[in-house]
Amino acid sequence: MYPPPPGSSHGGDAGGYGQQQQSGMPNMAGFQNMANLAENPMLQSVAKENFLQMQAQLTNKYMPGASSFWNSLRYYFHVDNRYVIRKLGLLIFPWRHRQWARIRFNDESMNNDPSAPRTIDFAPPIGDVNAPDLYLPTMASITYILFIGLLKGTTKSFNPDVLQNTFSTCTLVLMVEIGAMKGSLYSLPGGADVKPALLDMVAFAGYKYVLVALNLFIGISLGRTVYNVVMFYLCLCMAFFVYRTMEQAVPAPAYEDTGHKRRLYFLVACAALQFLTIFFLGFTRDLGETTFPGFPSMPAFGADDEYADDEADV
């Protein structure tokens, strides 16, 4: 018998299978090379930069002004733990503060931070305790809303609408206050040129939520009597703080004695407005009475009326 010719019968099939298997190995190696390239840190950084540039171009094209607004917003959240602690001390004890002028970037006293956004000529909050920020007002307003929900829960009158209504009240009070302050600026000489930044005024007005939330915590812990006493003190603190900060934000007129008087009236009105808003936001009947050792406890304000209403319903 003759041997089978090369490439025929079973030998040919085995050779074909081996060729297919060998031809598939380069494809697997190619996928592995692509995976290695995707994990390359240098290529990842290049791709990230290209994506950010493309995103910035599309944003400037379809939403002009969005980038500048975002940079301005970043300025008000450029804070650290040291600034938060110092700002809380300034709000609670404003009488001890002496230097209220804000630091500018060209001042030698400013510690230049290369990572700080430079969209505004004033130093960011991380470098100046007098600079306004939106971090504290935002966190404080959320805390205030949660405390109101907690108080409603202790009296078994909580429902989800409480949080929504409290948020709407906070927003409405802030809008009315800022609108009144902005409108009052036009009564000053050259009022059209006196334009403190809108976000600055939002921050100045929003600091009251820090004090209101703090006082609610005190009221929950110590009762209504201490709560009312501390509220009056915090109103004085907030009024003094707003007066001094707005005094720096609204420059004194260079002429006209009546202009100085109008500016003084404006500052006093801004300070007095803090009493109204804090008393309005802080008013609640859900706090219990303060009890001291040796003294009988008193029922919470309004408890007798609620008890009488329940009896009437029965």
TrEMBL record:
Regions crossing the membrane: 226-243, 264-283
The family this protein is said to belong to: Belongs to the YIF1 family.
Keywords: Endoplasmic reticulum, Golgi apparatus, Membrane, Protein transport, Transmembrane, Transmembrane helix, Transport
PANTHER family referenced in this protein's UniProt entry, alphabetically: YIP1 INTERACTING FACTOR HOMOLOG YIF1 PROTEIN, YIP1D-INTERACTING FACTOR 1, ISOFORM C
Gene Ontology annotations of biological process type: endoplasmic reticulum to Golgi vesicle-mediated transport; protein transport
UniProt-annotated stretches for the region Disordered: 1-28
Membrane topology annotation: Multi-pass membrane protein
GO CC terms of this entry: COPII-coated ER to Golgi transport vesicle; endoplasmic reticulum membrane; endoplasmic reticulum-Golgi intermediate compartment; Golgi membrane
Biological function: Has a role in transport between endoplasmic reticulum and Golgi.
Keyword presence, Protein transport: yes
The protein, known as: Protein YIF1
Biased composition (Gly residues): 9-18
Subcellular location: Endoplasmic reticulum membrane; Golgi apparatus membrane
UniProt entry tagged with the keyword Protein transport: yes
Pfam entry (one): YIF1
Main location as per UniProt: endoplasmic reticulum
